[in-house]
């Protein structure tokens, strides 16, 4: 088995030391170099063979963002895992790094608990993501067990194969690689989007707020974090708040959403399954569910409930996913109506949402000439 070669860039010597110790406890990983800032990192990276970079984003001198911009020109294929502080500033810079091409992130442990707890957190958070990223970037030497394939149900057994109902709600689930995918998808949707969009992205609290802010800046739609009970209107995107699930309910013509502080599901809070299950209960066949890149299988049970209710489900394809875990299990279970590259997802969403309702031009004509309605 070949070794995974990791390069570390962090301005704190103690962090570089403990990360090196933790990573090299794994026999599959070796740290081939370290640097204290971005400029030093770029210089030293040219002299070593590295399979993955772990990058701090807030450093004196050349920071992580500046290094990442230059690195994506000289070595665009190198996976980058951001290791950032759990602060408002750290979260905003991390979201910016993901938009610049970083593969994923791991929040640094908060200054609470024991040193042993901090080590365990780092070990559990980093090692799985490192090996998952290397699988994505075609390093076959890393041991990986392909999930068992389940036979696809025949078309006549699937409720969603019948004529689709009109879509009144879009729900989206994402995890690893999701911030970048959402950063492409949400801004590509028009401002007159005719139904609410609800999103669960696996992230800590400060990071979901930063992601909502970033998406809102770049999208024609209004994007906000769901931190209290709200009416979800057409043209709005609501992102589940970190450390809270999000549920959806229907009262007459009103769509109501709310945060829910219950136990984690699939080790996640927020969990995609919680949102998808509540959408299945209250909206049934009038839901379009979208499963984007992510590790694990959160969303699978919710998709089963949605499929039984006759809802439509589309998933991101393997080639465009950072990790084909969540969309892959839904696809292999035979629950997806379509499997698409990320670049085609907004067009497919609009096609399905517009089915059965007036087009934008028709709505414009009706608004300009209301007498013609009579």
Chain-wise SSE layout:
Layout: E1 4-9, H1 13-24, E2 29-35, H2 38-45, E3 52-55, H3 64-74, E4 80-84, H4 88-99, E5 104-107, H5 115-136, E6 169-174, H6 178-185, E7 197-201, H7 205-218, E8 222-226, E9 230-231, E10 236-240, E11 245-251, E12 254-260, H8 272-283, E13 287-291, H9 300-308, E14 312-316, H10 326-332, E15 338-340, H11 342-354, H12 360-368
Parallel strand pairs: 1-2, 1-3, 3-4, 4-5, 6-7, 6-13, 7-10, 8-10, 13-14, 14-15
Antiparallel strand pairs: 9-12, 11-12
Characterise this structure.
The chain has 374 residues and is of the alpha/beta class. It folds into 2 domains: 4-136, Response regulator (Rossmann fold); 156-360, 3-Layer(aba) Sandwich (Rossmann fold). It contains 12 helices and 15 strands. It has helices spanning 13-24, 38-45, 64-74, 88-99, 115-136, 178-185, 205-218, 272-283, 300-308, 326-332, 342-354, 360-368; strands at 4-9, 29-35, 52-55, 80-84, 104-107, 169-174, 197-201, 222-226, 230-231, 236-240, 245-251, 254-260, 287-291, 312-316, 338-340. The strands form 3 sheets. It has a 7-stranded parallel beta sheet, sandwiched between helices. A 5-stranded parallel beta sheet has the order 2-1-3-4-5, with helices on both faces. Helix 1 crosses helix 5, helix 2 (38-45) runs parallel beside helix 3 (64-74) and helix 8 (272-283) runs parallel beside helix 9 (300-308). The radius of gyration is 22 Å and the shape is elongated. The model is unreliable at 139-160 (pLDDT under 50).
